[in-house]
Specification:
The complex is a heterotrimer of chains A (776), B (196) and C (286).
Chain A: H1 29-33, E1 49-55, E2 61-67, H2 69-73, E3 77-82, E4 90-92, E5 108-110, E6 116-117, E7 123-129, H3 132-141, E8 143-148, H4 155-159, E9 172-180, H5 183-189, E10 192-200, E11 212-217, E12 223-227, H6 235-242, E13 249-253, H7 269-279, E14 283-286, H8 289-295, E15 302-310, E16 316-328, H9 334-343, E17 354-362, H10 376-394, H11 398-403, H12 425-435, E18 446-459, E19 468-475, E20 481-485, H13 494-506, E21 513-517, H14 534-561, E22 568-571, E23 574-577, E24 580-586, H15 587-596, E25 602-608, E26 627-640, E27 646-656, H16 663-682, E28 688-689, E29 692-693, E30 713-717, H17 739-751, H18 762-768
Parallel strand pairs in A: 1-14, 12-13, 16-17, 20-21, 27-30
Antiparallel strand pairs in A: 1-7, 2-6, 2-8, 3-7, 4-5, 9-17, 10-15, 11-12, 11-14, 15-16, 18-26, 19-20, 19-25, 22-23, 23-24, 26-27, 28-29
Chain B: E1 8-14, E2 17-23, H1 29-35, E3 54-57, E4 60-63, E5 76-78, H2 91-98, H3 108-121, H4 127-133, H5 145-162
Parallel strand pairs in B: 1-5
Antiparallel strand pairs in B: 1-2, 3-4, 3-5
Chain C: E1 7-9, H1 14-23, E2 27-30, H2 36-42, E3 49-52, H3 57-60, E4 62-65, E5 68-72, H4 77-82, H5 84-89, H6 92-98, H7 103-106, H8 111-117, H9 124-130, E6 134-139, E7 142-147, H10 148-151, E8 152-154, E9 157-158, E10 165-172, E11 178-186, E12 194-204, E13 210-218, E14 225-226, H11 228-232, H12 241-253, H13 262-282
Parallel strand pairs in C: 1-3, 2-3
Antiparallel strand pairs in C: 4-5, 5-10, 6-7, 6-10, 8-9, 11-12, 12-13, 13-14
Helix pairs in contact in C: 12-13
């Protein structure tokens, strides 16, 4: 594993591009840098009320009595809503959030608790008042009497017979199974069987921008909601909850200050909609940081067991994998997170005989939902540690064990889906390892360890959602370009990528492209900014639209210049004859010419992902995702054997991104995702004890600072084989997936024993070293 | 709470502009600034843990959520928006935009303020000094690498403007070209390029 | 939670401040506010009146007098990093300040504020304890001084009476032969509560025997303390590995509570050994 040389890449001939592939300054960067960009909480409207949410302080209780009379009587309080007032309104928490199938997983949550509360932080009542201070005072005046009920605080507890039931009939919110090949035969064939169990905790997104927004009823009676969100299509669920037609709710999304999946759920919008309607006035609601911790989604804790049959040379003959996820108090997106983990349970390896059994279980804890990777990172923490565990059991080099099992293009995953794009797992792993350089020697008190991981992570949504995206592209009469697209920009450059693609295809500088985005009433709906799908889906939609326009421009220009269409290119805001650049038409002239002849220089395109049916319920076989991104990460750590502290010495990540639309943005995604994954392994745990939160703020919940880890060295490979525009794959979620598993393997390498639970705190390290006794 | 609290008259000079305000003592500077229009100062946590609300208070970088407005009476305050605009950005802001250091942008105002405080005192900081100066600002998007690069780029550009010779080279051993608006990432990508 | 409502007073002189603290019911002084503001937000404190002492000239200065370094109560932690007198007379203070919270907090937090809070994880206390610091408490009836170890009574409890103000920390100027070291161990590199703080200060004579040995622990007990038994293991002996080992073992035993804190004891043991070795190596200060 040391002194590894990068595996040579196959020859790839990517067509040269002019703007795509360059690290241009992003269209949103300067506005943000000078503080001009307006975020959701920065908006104010005249006559605006301020809202607060009353939340449960207990994890499991019956609401005996709720008395809002004193609060209502406080001068300046405009409105109080309780569960009684919104009875019957349900929050559809599992909807794909866009067109296509509404295949309900069946998760609903009440808008406000009515008879009982199931988690600390559950919303009970809403207050809207003239000032924030008054709203907070009103909260204090609401009187509530609870009868505490027994609760369940782990999947194990929730599965016991006789346990309180949060989700009928047995607290199991979702279950899947995969049955591929012949497990018994595969195990019988094995020379050894290796079994390990791995645990992962709740994790908090901790984006810098708290959830918030402003809602008002406009002059047409349409409820407008300005909100930081990853999904503007929530207007459908909100309309349903309010009992109004879907075309009477308008979501105006803002530039989002980080989402990572938690802004995929409906957060403040539903409360704002009710209050705006009730009061007839604009209402503003912004969560506090403590509210973020208590009242928004977390990453699913998982316990994953791998039992793997292997030959002496490292080849896997059979695998039996069980997964138990903690769904928290309400299902939200648990059924899909579980599906992702299940579908990626075995990693980028060929296993002909495999059983996977997975369940998600309800508990009286903060609900779990989408978080970057969506079950993929958890699966990877298990399968990559298992691969190293197999290497150790067989006395083999961990990289050789990978080599004996990598899938290659044309092979299938555990669900039998054939992967058609490039699979450069070994190319990535060898580069990441090579980048670590010479191994740092141990000192008397510092034990150095190295570890790496190979991962796969899907991009694009589950294909049986029948995902679509739309974008409108047009050219103004002065040759500038407009894009209209519903895409929410959550900071990864979603809107910039679309601009750069249009700029490339239409031959205009990026500065000449403007995007109007994220308004459910006026921009074509582009679906969620989740599941690493925007570049793929909306990028392709923009590509289609821009190409349509290009064809018309080129056609008209060719006629004008008296040459064949194939001799005309668009570049530098001109239509030029490729072999004789002195012959050209300025785009402004061409645009006016087309306009006068009625040639439409705008186009609305829809891009459809592959449409499939669901997986076979008995075997779990079928296609799930459009494609996967393959990557690797390698880290070197030093463990202080006296204090248990871990110092990250080096980190390198290598991913095949298909094609980097903007290399600086790709670098940022990989570096940033890696950082979140490193935090997952070393620092972060959202702790609950009997349902009570022990890490309620950023003082207790430790997010990596600039001093905690060195920057991850980023190595980008481009196979050009992605299904996104220009052969791009997706990188948003894949960037995070390999980090924690690499650290886990490095820790095991340093200690000689494996700690089965994240995060690797100093206390756990010392216990593993036998320096202290584990305390119950 | 039955006590009568007396509002206090304060004068804040924000980005060069004087504001005379009547404020409750229990208001923090963060909320006052946002209320009077400086929404570039962001609220990330209100307990001094994230740095999103950082401003310069009489030249020192502080969390504005941890300053009572009444304590800032008479002070000179600089927020990120006071340093530059889209039409005339400050070199630090421009460096952030050019170096890929801005993703969601929510931490950026605070980062720029901490950078200003650093470069005002130390025009040629080492990487360790840069990281130290940013130690109170959390970022959840970038992994900090490009932000550190942005600070280095800003320092180089400011030195150029002031014609101060540089004693430190960039990490890779090459000097930052202040005219270079299109920054290559540290590692060239492979696969699309001829040699593997 | 929002901040509770309170009256705000800004005295222009120390006497005015002391007057206010004596006559105003439920008055609390504020300087940097980096403890008081989050604590008020949490509901820990709800004073009727807050008295701003952050600009009182007597509290803002660092000076030498009477063979001591006098650090005003409202001196910012950041100043401990920048002031040349502090670097010269008490180098353990900038060493401590480097790991104190983060750069933004340091620009507001004050020495006095950190000490009167007396949190178990108070970072400055162990450093001041090995300096044998005294605190100066002023009130209308006069000024009294007491050793820091007596001032820090317990977790969030000090000997300060409500009408008193911590005006200065008085640090005896060290001899040329002393050397010191400080380390904070937290779960994150910066900006977090200490899991363990260790501060040491040693001074050896011409024959190489240790004459002065001071070891202080933070976050290892309800209140920062000097590990006296550990110190006794060093005095009169050369500062060699055996003596250091014994001292480290005894420092570990000083961790409170005795049970359930194996991890802290292990860390105290390790850090004490390392810091004593480092201090021994630093040898003479000049």
């Amino acid at each position: 594993m040391d002194n590894v040389l990068p595996k040579p890449l196959p020859e790839v001939n990517l067509p040269p591009l002019k703007q795509v592939g360059r690290p241009l300054r992003r269209v949103d960067a300067l506005g943000k840098a000078v503080g001009a960009t307006v975020y959701a909480a920065d908006y104010s409207m005249p006559n605006m009320l301020h809202a607060k949410v009353l939340r449960s302080p207990v994890p499991s209780a019956r609401i005996v009595q709720l008395d809002v009379s004193k609060a209502r009587a406080l001068p300046g309080v405009a409105c109080i809503l309780t569960g009684e007032d919104v009875k019957g309104a349900k929050l559809n928490t599992d909807l794909p959030g866009q067109t296509g199938r509404e295949a309900r997983a069946g998760s609903d949550a009440p808008v406000l608790a009515l008879d009982a509360v199931r988690y600390v932080g559950e919303p009970i009542a809403l207050v809207a008042a003239e000032t924030l201070a008054l709203a907070e005072k009103a909260l204090q005046l609401i009187e509530i009497e609870f009868e505490e009920l027994p609760g369940v605080f782990s999947p194990e507890e929730a599965l016991k017979s006789g346990a309180p039931v949060l989700f009928e009939p047995d607290n199991v919110v979702a279950r899947y199974k995969i049955r591929k090949g012949d497990l018994e035969a595969g195990m019988a064939e094995a020379d050894a069987i290796v079994e390990n169990t791995f645990k992962m905790p709740f994790v908090e997104h901790a984006y810098l921008e708290p959830d918030g927004g402003v809602a008002w009823v406009d002059e047409q009676g349409v409820i407008n909601i300005r909100v930081c969100t990853q999904v503007i299509e929530h207007f459908r669920s909100i309309a349903r909850a309010l009992g109004v037609p879907q075309n009477r709710i308008r979501i105006r999304g803002t530039m989002v200050g980080g989402g990572f999946g938690s802004k995929e759920d409906i957060t403040v919008e539903i409360f704002l909609a009710f209050l705006a309607r009730e009061t007839g006035r604009p209402v503003k609601l912004v969560y506090t940081r403590e509210e973020q911790f208590a009242a928004t989604a977390k990453r699913h804790p998982f316990t994953i067991t791998h039992r793997t049959g292997v030959k002496a040379d490292g080849r896997i003959t059979a695998a039996q994998i069980t997964m138990v996820a903690d769904s928290g108090a309400y299902p939200y997106l648990s059924p899909y997170v579980l599906l992702y983990a299940t579908g990626m349970a075995a990693g980028p390896y060929r296993i002909d005989n495999v059983h996977v059994d997975s369940i998600a279980v309800a508990t009286n804890q903060t609900f779990t939902s989408a978080f970057r990777g969506f079950g993929g990172p958890q699966a990877a923490v298990a399968y990559e540690q298992q691969m190293d565990g197999i290497a150790k059991a067989l006395g083999l080099d961990p990289l050789d064990v990978r080599r004996a099992n990598y899938i290659t293009t044309g092979d299938s995953t555990v669900t039998g889906q054939v992967v058609r794009s490039a699979i450069w797992s070994e190319e990535c792993a060898t580069r990441a390892l090579h980048a670590l350089g010479e191994r740092t020697p141990d000192t008397e008190t510092k034990k150095v360890g190295r570890g790496f991981s190979n991962t796969l992570q899907s991009y694009g949504r589950i294909t049986w959602f029948h995902d679509t995206s739309r974008a409108w592209v047009g050219i103004e009469q002065d040759g500038t370009v407009v894009i209209r697209c519903g895409v929410p920009d959550i900071g990864a450059g979603q809107s910039n990528s679309l601009c750069q693609i249009a700029a490339e295809i239409l031959g205009v500088p990026l500065e000449q492209v403007t995007i109007y985005a994220t308004d459910s009433a006026v921009t074509p709906l582009a679906g969620t900014s989740t599941a690493t799908r925007q570049l793929y889906m909306s990028g392709n939609a923009v590509s289609l639209a821009a190409t349509s326009i290009r064809e018309r421009l080129v056609g008209r220009a060719a006629k004008e210049l008296g040459v064949g269409e194939e001799e005309v290119d668009l570049a530098n805001s001109r239509a030029v004859v490729t072999d004789d650049e002195s012959r050209f038409i300025e785009l402004t002239s061409l645009a006016k010419l087309c306009a006068s002849e009625g040639i439409e220089l705008s186009h609305l395109s829809q891009f459809n992902a592959p449409f499939t049916d669901g997986l076979d319920p008995e075997t779990g076989q079928g296609d799930i995702w459009p494609d996967f991104t393959f990557g690797a990460q390698a880290v070197e750590i030093a463990v202080d054997t006296e204090t248990g502290q871990i110092e990250l010495l080096k980190s390198a990540a290598c991913h095949d991104v298909g094609r980097a639309i903007n290399p600086a943005a790709v670098q940022g995604q990989i570096a940033g995702g890696s950082h979140q994954g490193l935090g997952y392994a070393l620092l972060e745990e959202f702790e609950l004890e009997n349902g009570y939160i022990k890490t309620p703020s950023l003082a207790e919940y430790l997010v990596p600072t600039v001093l905690d880890f060195p920057s991850t060295e980023v190595i980008v490979l481009e196979s050009g084989t992605g299904v996104g525009p220009f052969g791009a794959k997706g990188i948003g979620e894949p960037a995070l997936t390999p980090a924690a598993p690499a650290v886990a393997n490095a820790v095991a390498d340093a200690l000689g024993v494996r700690i089965p639970e994240l995060p690797f705190t100093p206390k756990r390290i010392l216990e593993a070293l036998g320096k202290t006794k584990a305390q119950a | 709470m039955t006590a009568q609290h007396t509002k206090q008259q304060v004068r804040l000079t924000v980005n060069g502009r004087a504001h005379d305000l009547l404020v409750e003592p229990n208001t923090v500077l963060l909320h006052t600034l946002r209320e009077i229009g400086y929404t570039d100062v962001k609220n990330g946590c209100e307990i001094g843990e994230c740095g999103a609300c950082a401003v310069l208070l009489n030249g020192a970088s502080v969390n504005s959520c941890m300053v009572l407005t009444v304590q800032a009476n008479g002070a000179e305050i600089v927020t990120n928006a006071g340093l530059g605009t889209i039409d005339r950005p400050h070199p630090i802001q421009e460096a952030f935009a050019d170096a890929g250091a801005v993703q969601c942008g929510f931490c950026t105002p605070g980062m720029v303020i901490s950078t200003k405080a650093l470069l005002d005192r130390n025009p040629d900081p080492t990487e360790a000094e840069i990281r130290e100066a940013l130690s109170g600002n959390l970022c959840r998007c970038t992994g900090y690498g490009q932000i550190v690069g942005a600070v280095r780029l800003a320092a180089a550009r400011l030195r150029d403007l002031a014609s101060i010779p540089s004693s430190s080279l960039g990490e890779e051993g090459r000097e930052d070209d202040p005219e270079d608006r299109l920054l290559a990432p540290d590692e060239p990508s492979e696969g699309g390029v001829a040699n593997g | 939670m929002p901040l509770p409502e309170f009256e705000f007073l800004r005295p222009k002189t120390l006497d005015e401040a002391l007057e206010m603290l004596s006559t105003t019911p439920e008055a609390m002084p504020i300087a940097g506010g980096t403890n008081l503001i989050p604590d008020m937000r949490k509901g820990t404190y709800s004073p009727e009146t807050v008295v701003d002492v952050s600009k009182l000239p007597e509290l803002c200065c660092i000076r030498r007098a009477e063979g001591r370094l006098l650090i005003g109560g409202a001196v910012r932690i950041a100043e401990l990093l920048e002031d040349p007198m502090v670097a010269e007379d008490a180098p353990i203070l900038p060493e401590m300040a480097r790991s104190f919270a983060n750069v933004l907090i340091r620009n507001r937090a004050t020495v006095g504020g950190n000490l009167v809070n007396s949190a178990p994880c108070c970072d400055s206390a162990p450093a001041f304890l090995v300096l044998d610091a005294e605190v100066e408490l002023a009130s209308l009836v006069g000024t009294r001084r007491l050793p820091l170890s007596e001032f820090l009574v317990g977790a969030f409890e000090t000997a300060r009476q409500p009408h008193e103000l911590l005006t200065a920390v008085r640090v005896p100027i060290l001899s040329d032969r002393s050397s010191s070291a400080f380390e904070k161990m937290g779960l994150r590199k910066i900006s977090c509560m200490a899991k363990v703080d260790v501060a040491v200060l040693v001074e050896s004579n011409d024959d190489g025997a240790c004459e002065v040995a001071r070891i202080a622990l933070g976050a290892a007990s309800p209140v920062a303390l000097r590990a006296k038994e550990a110190e006794e293991a060093l005095v009169g002996r050369p500062l060699g590995p055996e003596a250091i080992d014994t001292a480290s073992e005894r420092a570990a035993s000083a961790v409170v509570p005795r049970t359930g804190s194996e991890y802290k004891r292990q860390v105290v043991r390790a850090l004490t050994r390392r810091l004593l070795a480092a201090a021994a190596e630093r040898g003479a200060r000049r």
